[in-house]
Specification:
Blueprint lengths: L1 H13 L5 H13 L3 H14 L4 H13 L3 H14 L4 H13 L3 H14 L4 H14 L2 H14 L3 H13 L3 H14 L4 H13 L7
Length: about 210
């Protein structure tokens, strides 16, 4: 568990085994537990030995993003991309900052760059859909939702997408998500429940 992992990592560091992986892993654990200051200190220890570590700059960007420190997050995400231009996570982080400031054009542009690198990146597609949902751009909502439906093979992801579409009044897309989910996994109860809830909300009680 995380508590035990932290214990042994700290024991290793007290023995002067200053492995950068230990500091990074400690940072990830502290971050996941909400100890953001401790996470920041551990990540910065990595940069002392690896000043070009793109993944650490991204971790710091994500850390500051959680705290709403937009300028700091922006700085570290951009630095991550300097050292690894093909890294997807920093661009998603920057897109999230632009989305929070309602700069949809820049947010969309960053997502599309990611999709030019990895065409079926699920996290980028979910973020892109969030942007279009905020814009109420239903043409592009359907376009990218069906793009996900086409390649996605995880019934849990499809059900999550379908629930999001149902909540945002795109029932036909939602139902197609649930249909594919149950085709892939006939015993996946969550998809049946979500589909039944959608049909009931549409007044189609017999089908539900």
């Amino acid at each position: 568990n995380l508590k035990e992992s932290k214990k042994y990592y700290r024991m290793a560091l007290s023995g002067h085994w200053s492995d950068i992986k230990i500091y990074n892993n400690l940072g990830v654990i502290e971050d996941s537990e909400g100890n953001l200051k401790e996470a920041e200190l551990n990540y910065k220890e990595v940069l002392k030995s690896l000043p070009h570590a793109s993944f650490v700059y991204n971790n710091l960007g994500a850390l500051y993003l959680k705290q709403g420190q937009w300028e700091k997050a922006d700085k570290f995400f951009r630095q991550a991309l300097v050292y690894d231009p093909l890294m997807l996570e920093p661009r998603r982080g920057l897109a999230t900052i632009f989305l929070n400031h309602s700069d949809y054009r820049k947010a969309i542009g960053l997502c599309l760059i990611n999709l030019g690198i990895v065409s079926d990146d699920t996290d980028t597609l979910f973020l892109l859909l969030d942007i279009y949902l905020q814009k109420r751009d239903f043409v592009n909502i359907k376009k990218y939702a069906y793009r996900m439906i086409t390649f996605e093979t995880d019934p849990e992801v499809l059900t999550k997408l379908g629930i999001g579409m149902a909540r945002n009044n795109v029932p036909e897309v939602a139902m197609d998500c649930f249909i594919k989910a149950v085709r892939l996994a006939p015993d996946y109860k969550e998809a049946y429940f979500a589909a039944g809830t959608l049909l009931a909300n549409l007044g189609k009680y017999d089908e539900a």
